[in-house]
Amino acid sequence: MCAITSAAFQPSHGEVRAQSSATGRANVTWIRKAVDPPPVLLWYEGELMTSALRKHQLTEADVHTAARESGHGSLDGLRAVIMQQDGSLGVIADGSMGDGSTVLPYVTEHPGR
User: Fold this and answer.
1) Per-residue pLDDT at 113
2) What is the DSSP code string of the chain?
């Protein structure tokens, strides 16, 4: 039996690459969301986010440790403590908050929201 193939039905090398590239971007976005969780707010305006601490198996002592490591003797004067995507804890002091655009999307437990 003889198979007849036509160039019209065969995708060019560039078309295959474009299709796999688009599929790859979609897969990478999905994988990134699964592997790279969003930042988590642990302390905000004088209040511990207790459910976030429990969910991520952290304690109040971890929040205090983050404050000390950032050069603060207490949580007074801090606006937020956030668990970053890499698992490290970031501290934002009152005077460094600015408009809060990098923090406010993660405020879920605060009574005012």
Assistant:
1) 43
2) ------TTTSPPHHHHHHHHHHHHHHHHHHHHHHHSPPPEEEEETTEE-HHHHHHTT--HHHHHHHHHHTT-SSSTTEEEEEE-TTS-EEEEEGGG-TT-TTTGGG--SSTT-
CB-based contact 80:44 (threshold 8 Å)? yes
pLDDT along the chain (113 residues), means of 10: 50 50 59 76 93 95 96 94 93 90 74 44
- Domain limits of the chain? 40-106
Cα-Cα-Cα-Cα dihedral sign, residues 42, 45, 46, 49: negative
**DSSP 3-state assignment of 111?**
coil
Would you state the CATH architecture of domain 40-106? 2-Layer Sandwich (3.30)
Give the span between the Cα atoms of 86 and 40, in whole angstroms.
11
| SS3 state of residue 21 | helix
What is the model's pLDDT at position 102?
Answer: 83
